[in-house]
Amino acid sequence: MGRRPVTVRLARWSAEHPWRAIALWVVFVAVCFVGGSAAGLNEATDEDQAIGEFGRAQLIVDSGGFDRPATENVLITARSGSLDQTAAKAAAQDAADRLRQVDGVASIGTPMPSRDGSALLVPITMSGDPGTAGDRVQPLRDTTAKVQDAHPQLRVEQVGGPSIDKALDDTLGKDFKRAELLSLPVTLAILIIAFGALIAAGVPVLLALSSVAAAMGLSTLASHLVPATDTTASVILLIGMAVGVDYSLFYVRREREERAKGRSGLDAVEIAAETSGHAVVVSGTAVIISMGGLLLAQDAIFSSLAVGSILVVAVAVIGSLTVLPALLAKLGRWVDRPRVPLLWRLTAPRTGQSARPRFWPAVLKPALRAPVATLLISVALLLALAAPALGMKLKFPGPEDVPRTTAAMQAYDRLTAAFPSNGTSHTVAVRAPAEQADRVRAALTDLAGRTATDPLFAPAEGDGPEIQVSADRRVSVLEVATPHASRSDEASRSLHELREDLVPATLGGIPGVEYAVGGGVAASEDYAAHIWAKLPIVAAFVLALTFLVMAWTFRSVVVALTSILLNLLSAGAAYGLLVLVFQSTWAEGLLGFTSMDAIVTWLPLFLFVVLFGLSMDYHVFVVSRIREAIDRGMPNREAVAHGITSSAGVVTSAAVVMVAVFSIFATLSMIDFKQLGIGLAAAILLDATIIRAVVLPSVMTLLGDANWWAPRFMRRRTVVAPAVEPPPAPAPELVGAR
């Protein structure tokens, strides 16, 4: 007999030396976590994240070394009717006097009336690091609240970047706390239903959490090679829980099945390692390839996400091949304790005639009896669902997409209504030789004058445009405001008018000049263009390497090709569903959002690689079971029926866990997370149901023996199938005439 696969050898050693394997795993996780904490996190800089002209503008501004302190404002408006100017000035003076006594306030500006006299604005400059201003703004807000109490006939409120940041942090903090509190109990509850036993349900969660902890530490170490962003930890948790639970679920289910057939604990672990363990390795490789494609985006955010995801998947695969067999061997039949009486009777592994499922054969019947019609109808429905994706628009969320449940955002709306120049703005950044500084200032003043009479722009408040000049006189910056919302067509037109007409016309003739237009609108448009340019490259890389892995694993070009096509169909349907839900208004009340008439810019690329990777989990597991049956000599149609019905329970359980966890993200306040949660949950649901239970069996039944065609150099050698008992014959109604 040939040498056993590495998955079996690892599992056997772990099962024979469980305490050593468990101890090594605990040490590994501890060393990774502690080592990462000691090394510290290296975060991406503006230079790392510079994309397009927006990125160039940001780098020019940074090179000027400007002192840009955090600023706040006290906004005074009437509760109804016109503003009493005398009362407003008294309130403004009161606010200035009180705020000067507050730690963290550097200076108070002169009160500024709005052009229409409806508001009075008191500017506040904060001291200290602008990056931590949101953490230090509360004493200012408390003082403003006291001013409000002293002047009840007016509306006195505080608004500014730090206040909005704090309000958003508080909202997101509550959201994530709720999500964390819900996700773990929901996952455990679903696993208890799937296994009918508490310990069996706890093992996948334990492996997933320990994998996440180890990957967090490793990603911190890796940040010194690939700088991290503030989203990396969230993605590690999201992906780690998904694959960690999936891989354990596959493995534990197979081990329990083999024990139910009378195998010893060690034999059951070995068979699980040779079958499910092998599927886990292939699935993990597919996920790693998909996530690795993000590195081709040449983007600090996606590179950081790729590294974190690759690490957590790799750790989860290692854990499922080492510590998981050790735990199962040590627990033995205790893994099925304590049992939940009713659930145990429904979920306990069965053998013989009683093991034959009834639900899934009924679902499979159309695909096996009429594969052509079933395939055409199901694919047509999925293509129809995918069709709206052709009209997908990409934009960054703007201030208008932040929930208006906070006082800070309600005040922001009143601020921008009274003072339009405090809303959306474009940053004109200029770098030129110091001797050209006067010409640059004259050109920027001319630019401000041209925009002041253009309805696409908002005129500067106060005494005219404020042009910032660096100490070395090489860098100059002008903020050009627009009265339109950041995602509006008017805001986009104002950006293009600046970039294509006004800025070149006023600055283009200065010798040695370098300029760029940035700001929020520019960031959205430039990043969307970046995503559309990189998506085909990333997709081609992921498709090509996944094809090679699947072809080599199953020794079949046809299986590899159908795998790719089915996952593309699943991803396309998910894209179409996202567009249907979020680029329209019909679901606003149902899901609690305001349509931004677009999809968040970074989502399509991230969603593609995540869905492609996670979908392969199910595909590899199902096709592996079909291949096992083929290797034992079962005809293709019966093998398809057996492979899908025998894997349906575990695939369904894994999918329900993922859908439930991802759906929790759809309850968060921010539109980014709603779209991410709905997109992932819907795609996994479609993939585990229509794709795996309808389209896949239709295709494999229709192709018959052609499923396993491959060039001579790829064909399998004679193999010995896993030592498992033959499955019960499929029900006659599944087989049909061949």
TrEMBL record:
Transmembrane segments: 21-41, 181-199, 206-226, 232-250, 271-295, 301-329, 368-390, 531-550, 557-582, 602-623, 644-666, 678-706
Topology with respect to the bilayer: Multi-pass membrane protein
PANTHER family in UniProt: MEMBRANE PROTEIN MJ1562-RELATED (PTHR33406), MEMBRANE PROTEIN YDFJ (PTHR33406:SF13)
Alphabetical list of Pfam families matching this protein: MMPL
Compartments where found: Cell membrane
Principal location class: membrane
Upper lineage: Bacteria, Bacillati, Actinomycetota, Actinomycetes, Micromonosporales
Keyword annotations from UniProtKB, A to Z: Cell membrane, Membrane, Transmembrane, Transmembrane helix
Protein name, entry field: MMPL family transporter
Domain Membrane transport protein MMPL: 65-372, 403-713
